[in-house]
Amino acid sequence: MNGIQRMLVPRRTLALWALAATLLALPALGHDGKLTFAPVLRDVAPAVVNISVESSREVRNPWFNDPRFRRFFGIPEDAPQQMTRRAQNVGSGVIIDADEGLVVTNQHLVRNSDRIRVSLKDGRSFDAELVGSDPGTDVALLSIEAEELTQLPLAEAESLEVGDFVIAIGNPFRLEHTVTAGIVSALGRTGLIRQGYEDFIQTDASINPGNSGGALVDLDGRLVGINTAIFAPSGGGAGDGFNVGIGFAVPVHIVRGVVDQLIEFGEVRRGLLGVLIEDVTPELREALDLADDVTGAWVARVVERSAAQEAGVQEGDIITSLDGDDLATSAELRNRVGLMRAGDNVTLGVLRDGEERIRIKATIGEPERQTIAGASSSSKLEGVELRNLTDDHERFGAISGVEIASIERSSLAWRSGLRQGDVVLSVNRQVVGSVEEFDAVTAEQGGLLALRVQRGESRLFITIR
After folding, report:
1. Domains and CATH numbers, the chain
2. What is the largest CA-CA distance in the chain?
């Protein structure tokens, strides 16, 4: 055997090994020798349910937002400005605990629900109770009283890789138990839920309206994610629009953490680090004379009496890692901290003054203030009380801001056009997602306040001089 032949033998062996590994990763062989997902689906399908939701919500009459309209028709300021809108919606869910009758679905599907009905593959239907929901991750937990249920086992987070085969099961367009297949296109996708906590699985398995809340499973029949959104030409998400081959699912490790808190508290009690952060952009690297490989979250402000301040985090610090894991963007830090509980201990990797690398240990704190009086942050807001958006707000999870809880009619803010129920999205072009951030931003504004406000279905600018 010459040298060339000796080199070909191990290459052929490697090729056989690669072929064997590929065949093991593919769907099972049927009785006729064809590849099929049928063995997996026989076990999985009974755990995927159809969910129908009847809901109603109070909405503002848009005409009442126009003061000229109100004056023309003589409508007093304290007249009712809302009307009831009723709707029906359908989606999917996954049974994760057969003994307790626990079903996971999407929060946006059951938001403002008056009645929730769960239908099983065997034809049985049950009224469901909402155990709790979390708009930040778009996860909700339902409970039904039923016997002989089938549940899906949960996969381990680290078991999923880009390129793995996955199966999506749901009820798109009211077509019950529709099955599509594809691969994992990417992991850790963000930017789909504004101000949400994201770590999405991206897949090319077809996910359409009605798939929301359905199962994304691996070839072992384990739940790897809850289908939640598609990327559509219309710009839709969370089941809007139509599929173009890009779908997203909430990964099982987020689902598991949220469900544990919903069972224990009926809500997700998130911790708070207490920093206003921005991405480390090329412009910021140039301005601070940083190396090109520096990434993470630049600390624009440290909230007073926060966990970050107590731990020693300073304005201008760059948080480069969390518990040893490097951070590429500020969103990664926000997502990671947002999924932690108050009292959790973390280690922050910090770059200070562009040179000194230090480690800071911090204990995640609790959001202390739910409301603030305007006078505590700016004299221009005297007579105004603000509060964080709560999960019963119709736009909670869809927008980020602070709500005007009350406002005195004699105040400067009222005369400038601000009204109770308005949601302030930004102040002088700085986004405010909580009363803490609002307080921090307005405290340093000595002149004009330019507020971007959500009022009903419209957005407007209000200036307070």
Report:
1. 44-143 (2.40.10.10), 157-265 (2.40.10.10), 275-363 (2.30.42.10), 371-464 (2.30.42.10)
2. 102
